Amino acid sequence: MIVSEKMADFARRSSWIRKMFEEGIALKKLHGADRVCDFSLGNPDLPPPGEFNRCLAGLAGKEVPGAHAYMANAGYPETRDIVAARVGAEQGVAVDGASVIMTCGAAGGLNVALKAILNPGDEVIIIAPYFVEYGFYIDNHGGRAVVVESAGDFDLDCGKIAGAISERTRALIINSPNNPSGQVYPAHSLEKLAQVLAAAEKEHGRPICLISDEPYRRIVYDGVEVPPIMGVWPHSIVANSFSKELSIPGERVGYLAVSPAIADYDELIGAMILANRILGFVNSPALMQRVIAGIGEVTADFSHYRRRREIFCKILEDGGLEFIPPQGGFYIFPRSPLDDEVAFCNLLRDEKILAVPGRGFGSPGYFRLAFCVEDEVIRRSAEGFKRAVARALSS
């Protein structure tokens, strides 16, 4: 077989979301798209803000010499400065443009960061439930993912994290608001985590990086705020993306921001800039960088997500499902009424409802629902959820 054994194994392990996507296509073809409730993909459906479209049109219409040429691999200085000001305000720490690297989305940023810090065999702790691709990103750069379960309310379990740290631990990735649970790690949990990391550094004699993946930072509900990490832990790196907050996932523009207090700051920044090039990303898209620099602090209209969250929570509650209302993002992660959540997802599929089994996120027994879909899609799922739960409880 021409495909490597590793990639063939990866394809099998990463198949859940893709499998549900393909089943969605088949169901829509068979029954009609207006009869299928597809909650499988986290693909933002809101339009970008008007400022984005106007700025994009204005920039595209200008003839600027070198507008489409290569730039410095870290990105345009003016864009880095603007992003640095934003990060500094969020983190409560003075951050300058030299600490920011523009990347091809948060995914590109995470790969750049891991490329820069990992030696072969180094370990990276990830918290279940986790974004499905973290393990693959870590493997890309010779590392090994160590999975730690979250607490029952999806908060950090710092005791389990402490037990998972070894002399090979180089980093820990957190994702808040979390995909798939929608939970935000509170400030007191981050402070306790910092104490755990400090003790581990003292024991093992090497810095441990805290990497915060924050593409949903600005999509939060009920007055919840995402606590900063840079003031809590010096060896901090933030990866972020404009995909969700501007509803432009296809444009692939994001950034890394490095704490000015991190160990070996100059060497790390240099390594990340080099990694941005040699991984093949080269630059974050030039036009998108100019748009980001030109639109200020605008976002898509998240009131739609808030309304959909309320509709969905009421439907799931009426349907007899157990769940924690998400504090951010656009996912809900209910507990399956069957121990085998794949079997329950199959019952949902019989009702023309598509959900993703939790084992794909490292948390069997749960399933993920994405509510970045039209209100009517959510509303028409209500009776299907009730029937699927009734069948599960009678089996």
Layout of strands and helices, then pairs:
Blueprint: H1 5-13, H2 15-31, E1 37-38, H3 50-60, H4 77-91, E2 100-103, H5 105-117, E3 123-128, H6 134-140, E4 144-149, H7 158-164, E5 169-175, H8 187-204, E6 209-213, E7 236-241, E8 254-258, H9 265-278, H10 286-295, H11 303-318, E9 331-332, H12 341-350, E10 353-354, E11 356-357, E12 367-370, H13 375-379, H14 382-394
Parallel strand pairs: 1-10, 3-4, 3-5, 5-6, 6-7
Antiparallel strand pairs: 2-8, 7-8, 9-12, 11-12
Helix pairs in contact: 3-10, 4-10, 5-9, 7-8, 12-14
Which terms would index this structure?
395 residues; Aspartate Aminotransferase, domain 1; Aspartate Aminotransferase, domain 2; 2 domains; 14 helices
Tally of alpha and pi helices: 14
CATH topology of the largest domain: Aspartate Aminotransferase, domain 2
Q: What is the share of helical residues?
A: 40-55%
Q: How many structural domains in the coordinates?
A: 2
SS class: alpha/beta
**Integer average pLDDT:** 94
Number of strands: 12
Low-confidence stretches: none
Instruction: Please report which band the strand proportion falls in: under 5%, 5-15%, 15-25%, 25-35%, 35-45% or over 45%.
Output: 5-15%
CA radius of gyration: 21 Å
The strand order across the widest sheet is: 2-8-7-6-5-3-4
Second-tier CATH architecture of the largest domain? 3-Layer(aba) Sandwich
Task: State the CATH class of the largest domain.
Answer: Alpha Beta
What is the string of helix and strand elements? HHEHHEHEHEHEHEEEHHHEHEEEHH
Shape: globular
Span of the ends, CA to CA: 42 Å
- Going by CATH, the homologous superfamily of the largest domain would be Type I PLP-dependent aspartate aminotransferase-like (Major domain)
The major beta sheet can be summarized as: 7 strands, mixed
